[in-house]
Amino acid sequence: MKKLVLFSFLATAIITSTISCKKDSNTPAPTDQAGTIVGKWNYQGEIVTVNHPNNPPETTTNKYTNGESVQFLENGTGSDYNTSFKYTVSGKVLTISYDAYVSNGVTHNAKVVTATINQLTTIKLTLHINDTYKDTNGALNGNDIIQYLVK
Q1: Range of the domain at 93
Q2: What pTM, to 2 d.p., does this model score?
Q3: Is residue 6 part of a domain?
Q4: Residue 4 in this model has a pLDDT that exceeds 70
């Protein structure tokens, strides 16, 4: 009888641990998330790693406290720091296209920014912008940025 009780206890423990370790089958597969990114997102902070040739990378953490935000509209346009842009979302890739503009007497060239959506919920958005490249000598240059936003 003791063996039967012990066997039942062990079997239950094994089954319970197996079930609790399975991946959550309710997690949706990445899809076009343009409908859920729509809205005003407030910047909370970012981690920026700046890569310089022949020097170690420099990482800084910035917190936003002045109400900086980005707005994504349903029609595929938006604004960030009073600058208009067009955007698309495909799976977990957000592409933002800025036209050339002048701000405080400084001309800024047109540019395209591509970000990976690391997290997107009804209230949280985390973006990874990898703007690094290798120069002609093979040294890593540019910025690697993680941005944290909330609605």
Answers
A1: 28-150
A2: 0.69
A3: no
A4: no
